[in-house]
Amino acid sequence: MAxxxxxxxxxxxxxxxxxxxxNVFILVMIFSLYISKNHDKNNKNxxxxxxxxxxxxxxxxxxxxxxxxxYAIISMIEITDIAYAxxxxxxxxxxxxxxxxxxxxxxxxxCKKYVADPxxxxxxxxxxxxxxxxxxxxxxxxxxxxxxxxxxxxxxxEGYKHGWGYFVWQGxxxxxxxxxxxxxxxxxxxxxxxxxxxxxxxxxLPIMAITFDLIFEYAxxxxxxxxxxxxxxxxxxxxxxxMYSIETVLQMEDAQKKLMMDQIKPHFLHNSLNSIIYYIDKxxxxxxxxxxxxxxxxxxNLDSVNTEDLIPVSEELExxxxxxxxxxxxxxxxxxxxxxxxxxxxxxPTLSIQPMVENAVKHGIRKSETGSGTVKISTKETENHxxxxxxxxxxxxxxxxxxxxxxxxxxxxxxxxxxxxxCNGTLEFESSEGRGTICTIRIPKN
Length: 446
Prior knowledge:
The chain has helices at residues 2-42, 54-79, 85-119, 122-148, 164-186, 193-215, 222-262, 266-282, 284-305, 313-331, 354-365, 412-423, and strands spanning 152-155, 159-162, 311-312, 335-341, 347-348, 373-381, 385-392, 426-431, 437-444. By secondary structure, it is of the alpha+beta class. The strands form 3 sheets. It has a 5-stranded mixed beta sheet, with helices on one face. Strands 1-2 form a two-stranded antiparallel ribbon. Strands 3-5 form a two-stranded antiparallel sheet.
């Protein structure tokens, strides 16, 4: 029996050392990720780039830190004779299980957000919801364990002991991870490289740890394997981060070049100048106002090519009004403009609203049966988004064509790309032929 106790104490010492040094590495990785995230925000070239999975990995590391911390406390209590050992041991063990459950919840949420939802995978979505519900039930059993000891308890003679609920808990974790591994393996080809790596590491290593724990009675491989998983994910993440940043910067530069080309509109410039020439003799005052608007329009378009920052939505709306004033010069009463501006306290990419208004005029109003109509521009705020709506009662179109839209379509593709790259925004259309179009831009508040 003394030999067994010596072996247990030796294993506890090894686990304490692994947990402490593991937490040192985890802290370094947490600070490194946090600093990198802030650096990216402040970097002139990539400040609008959000590296995927960064927040989730940070949460994962923070949970691992406390997971190792509580286990180190448990191991230290086991090899020391301190007062109130039973209460301290039970509290640390309870918190250890709580953090373990939080890790499972994080993993389920991660799979739902980045695999099930993007793929619209109903089977995986339902499976994750069922597994999450079971984990909630196990969490309730853990709370009840305080009074019943069904998962673990502390014997005054033999110390920490497993109840029948422990095997249910561990068995469920192994079964859930194995089941998810099978489901994810079927879908692996549709995932990006980093997502494959993260999911593969997070699923396989805990299963290996549980297997080793069952084989070696007095060892605990769980924390050691989790630390290894964290290190492997960190190395792969840093490599992915560098490649993702470079690729996204190149995409933004390409979008900027496309923006520059979009602004070279000889037909619009020619028509605006002809309208101004027409009014020079007929209405000099109107011609002068038009020249001022024409100058503002050109200056804003040229300045936008070199603008790397988001701009206040009020500036973009002002540029849109200048554009519409020039169009009104040509179409007069055939073009009606309405505004409903309820929200101006947010930022947008330059030339994100005006091109969509231009589409409404050229492809909606002008192509309608009467060649006339109304464009309504509105903004509002919701709990999570700033929303811009451009609505027209013109010709409308079949939205199925958006799936095959090409670079020749004025501004749409460029705006879509820049909204995604610069502020994680979205651009959506609702339309039907002969009944007008609603264009909606959503800018997340975060």
